[in-house]
């Protein structure tokens, strides 16, 4: 009996030492990857973009760059890109205070938002202006673009304490509240005329255009913007809208499988072509597919919003977020070399998920890194092996997405799209926001949550 007890004790000690050894190994891997990410942010991203992208002649930021970072094209300026540059430089100014130009870069960008992109007559941010700030087209506006304006202003105010930025953030929020917010069915109308009148869709037969629909993409980034705003302006109505968007995305826009529905009628009836032929479905693919990148991104944004709201033991949001990540890993992740595919679809006459676009765009992989590490912290022993997939995805990014010679990330992974090696590094839909946020978040998570600790 005594020998049995001793044997059990030795066995338990061995198991314990093994677990300690595994935790130490995992912590070492976390530290190594975090160091690689921090170095990449500073030497392969920020130093290439700033101050090069600062448009000293006309204000704001240049948008378009060749593969080797030469400015190219007419340099039209979209609210989304300009705001993302303001946000990134504001965050970089706080993170790296010794690099003094990040603060002045962010201030420079804020002034362009305030002086050129804000509509002084009707309010709201224009969607697109030319390089010198002249409005292009009829001055239509979008909730999506104004969400990023709000996001940037909030971050810039947090960094600078410039009350002009906070005042403009408040004006933006109230403009969205007055014009874009739907008091009946909740959420926000995406497309707006210059005077703020929503463009609503009433047609019985959906077209190939998203004009007039409500959508997941503007919804998740409104959630993100309201989270950032609430941190600097904890107004009761901001809290109400933030909570409203969290519940709407979690409980209505996300399906029981764990993927987001992309587009909706104004009353949140999903737009779906699943009962149509495959040809019709593919024709409407931009309105109706599974977007694995948005799914993993949204899991993080929901948990961030829940944390900002101070919701304790929010098991529902955590459960839905985990389901979203698990679904994306199971059905849309390349398990051999890594990387989330761009698009999938559940065809009614085919089993399981069909991948309908195999490209692996840069932003999905960046968002995937952030959320996989978050899930690894929450569920370190989960069968989904979040940390191992996180390591695989980072290796994929190092091999196929980060341009170690010319800087920044290719638009899509070279394993599937080798022609992207000489594609543009920057354009109005590609800047530094996704990659900067994801990598710095991973670095911070690695420092705050060593292996075996579940974090917040």
Describe what this molecule looks like in 3D:
This protein is mainly alpha-helical. It is built from 13 helices and 8 strands. It has helices at residues 2-49, 79-95, 101-117, 143-160, 163-180, 216-232, 236-253, 278-283, 292-308, 315-332, 362-378, 386-401, 433-448; strands at residues 77-78, 128-129, 141-142, 191-192, 214-215, 263-264, 343-345, 354-357. A two-stranded antiparallel sheet has the order 1-2. The protein has a two-stranded antiparallel sheet with strand order 3-4. The protein has a two-stranded antiparallel ribbon with strand order 5-6. β7 (343-345) and β8 (354-357) form a beta hairpin. The longest helix is centred in the first third of the chain and has 48 residues, at 2-49.
Summary, kept brief:
This protein has 456 residues and is mainly alpha-helical.
Strand content: under 5%
Give the fraction of residues assigned to helices. Answer: 40-55%
What is the approximate shape?
A: globular
Sketch the major β-sheet. 2 strands, antiparallel
Chain-averaged pLDDT:
94
Major β-sheet strand ordering:
1-2
**Structure class:** mainly alpha
Cα Rg: 23 Å
In total, the number of strands is 8
**SSE pattern:** HEHHEEHHEEHHEHHHEEHHH
Q: What brief labels describe this structure?
A:
456 residues, mainly alpha, two-stranded antiparallel sheet, two-stranded antiparallel ribbon, 13 helices, globular, disordered C terminus
Topology summary:
Layout: H1 2-49, E1 77-78, H2 79-95, H3 101-117, E2 128-129, E3 141-142, H4 143-160, H5 163-180, E4 191-192, E5 214-215, H6 216-232, H7 236-253, E6 263-264, H8 278-283, H9 292-308, H10 315-332, E7 343-345, E8 354-357, H11 362-378, H12 386-401, H13 433-448
Antiparallel strand pairs: 1-2, 3-4, 5-6, 7-8
Helix pairs in contact: 1-13, 2-3, 2-4, 3-4, 4-5, 4-6, 6-7, 6-9, 9-10, 9-11, 11-12, 11-13
């Amino acid at each position: 009996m005594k020998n049995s007890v001793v044997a059990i004790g030795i066995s338990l000690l061995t198991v314990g030492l093994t677990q300690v050894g595994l935790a130490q190994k995992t912590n070492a891997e976390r530290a190594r990857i975090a160091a690689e990410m921090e170095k990449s942010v500073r030497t392969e991203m920020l130093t290439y973009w700033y101050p090069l992208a600062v448009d000293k002649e006309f204000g704001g930021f240049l948008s378009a760059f060749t593969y080797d970072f030469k400015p190219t094209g007419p340099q039209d300026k979209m609210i989304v890109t300009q705001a993302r540059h303001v946000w990134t430089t504001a965050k970089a100014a706080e993170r790296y205070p010794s690099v003094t130009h990040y603060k002045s870069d962010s201030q420079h960008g804020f002034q362009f938002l305030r002086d050129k992109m804000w509509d002084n007559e009707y309010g709201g941010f224009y969607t697109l202006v030319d390089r010198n700030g002249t409005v292009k087209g009829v001055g239509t506006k979008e909730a999506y673009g104004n969400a990023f304006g709000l996001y940037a202003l909030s971050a810039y105010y947090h960094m600078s304490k410039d009350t002009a930025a906070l005042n403009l953030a408040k004006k933006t929020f109230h403009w969205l509240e007055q014009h874009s917010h739907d008091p009946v069915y909740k959420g926000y109308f995406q497309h707006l005329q210059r005077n703020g009148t929503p463009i609503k869709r009433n047609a019985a037969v959906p077209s190939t255009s998203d004009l007039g629909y409500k959508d997941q993409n503007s919804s998740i980034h409104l959630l993100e913007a309201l989270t950032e705003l609430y941190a600097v302006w904890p107004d009761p109505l901001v809290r109400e809208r933030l909570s409203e968007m969290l519940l709407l995305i979690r409980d209505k826009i996300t399906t029981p499988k764990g993927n987001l529905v992309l587009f909706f009628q104004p009353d949140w009836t999903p737009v779906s072509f699943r009962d149509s032929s495959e040809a019709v479905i593919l024709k409407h693919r931009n309105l109706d597919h599974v977007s694995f990148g948005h799914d993993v991104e949204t899991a993080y944004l929901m948990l961030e919003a829940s944390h900002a709201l101070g919701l304790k033991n929010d098991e529902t949001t955590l459960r839905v977020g985990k389901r979203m990540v698990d679904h994306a890993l199971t059905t849309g992740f390349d398990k051999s070399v890594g990387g989330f595919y761009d698009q999938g679809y559940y065809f009614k006459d085919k089993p399981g998920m069909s991948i309908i676009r195999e490209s692996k765009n840069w932003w999905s992989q960046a968002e995937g890194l952030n959320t996989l590490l978050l899930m690894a912290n929450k569920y370190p022993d989960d069968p989904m092996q979040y940390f191992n997939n996180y390591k695989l995805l980072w290796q994929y990014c190092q091999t196929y997405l980060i341009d170690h010679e010319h800087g920044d990330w290719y638009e899509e992974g070279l394993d599937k799209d080798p022609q992207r090696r000489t594609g543009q590094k920057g354009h109005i839909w590609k800047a530094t926001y996704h990659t900067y946020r994801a990598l710095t978040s991973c670095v911070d998570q690695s420092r705050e949550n060593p292996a075996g600790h579940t974090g917040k």
